[in-house]
Amino acid sequence: MDFSRIYDSIPYILEGIPVMFQVVLVSALFGITLGIVIATFKIIPNRFVNFIGHAYTAVFRGTPLILQLAIIHFGLPQLTGFITTPYQSAVIAFSLNSAAYISEIIRAGIQAVDKGQWEASDALGVPYVKQLRSIILPQAFKNILPALVNEMITLTKESALVSTVGVLDIMRRAQIVGGQKAIYFEPLLFAGVIYFTIVMVLTYLGQRLEKRLRKSDGR
C-alpha cells in the first residue's frame, strides 16, 4: 500500500462528505414525514387504507434499495419522459425507502402508547386526527427516537449507493481517484475509514441520547 499516491486527492474525496450528509438529511426529513403518513394508514380503522400502508411497506422493504434507485433514475424517464438529476433520484429513492422502515418504527411506537391515553382522549371527545397529532405522536416519538437515530445511521451507510447514479459523494470520488491514478485499494480504503468514523460518531451520539432519555424517564 502506498497512500502517498493519493495525498493530493484527499481534499477532493473529503468534499464528498457534505454531499453525503445533504442526501442523508434531506432523505431522512422526507422519509420521516412520509413515514408518519404511512404509519397512520396502518392504524386507521379502515381496511382499504390499512392495505395501502402495508402494501407500500412490503414493496419498499421487499426489494433492494439499489434496484429502487435504478428504476427511479433510469427507468422512470422511459415511462414518463421526465428526467431527474442524480441527486434528485437519490433523494427520491432514499426518501421512499426510508419511509417504509420509519413507518414501522412509528407504528410500533404509536401502538406502544398506553391505551388509557386513547381512552381518555375519546372520553374528552378529541377527534382522531387531533389525538394522533397532539397526544399520541409526541409520546411515541420520545420512545422511538433511538430507533430513528439507528435508521439515520443505516441511511448514512447505504448512501454510498448513490455513487451508482453519479452523485459525487465520498464513494464516487474515491472511485474517480482510483480510475485517474490506476490504484483502487488506497482511495477505497480511505473512503471506508471516513464512513466508519462518521458511523461511529453517530452511534456514540445515539447512545448518549438513549441514556439521556432513560434518565429523564427515571430508568
UniProtKB/TrEMBL annotation:
Stored Gene3D superfamilies: MetI-like (1.10.3720.10)
Tell me where it resides. Answer: Cell membrane
Give the source's domain of life in one word.
Answer: Bacteria
One Pfam family here: BPD_transp_1
Regarding protein family, the annotation reads: Belongs to the binding-protein-dependent transport system permease family. HisMQ subfamily.
Q: State the protein's name.
A: Amino acid ABC transporter permease
This chain's source organism reads Exiguobacterium alkaliphilum
Tagged with keyword DNA damage? no
Q: How does it sit in the membrane?
A: Multi-pass membrane protein
Q: Which CDD domains would you find in this protein's record?
A: TM_PBP2
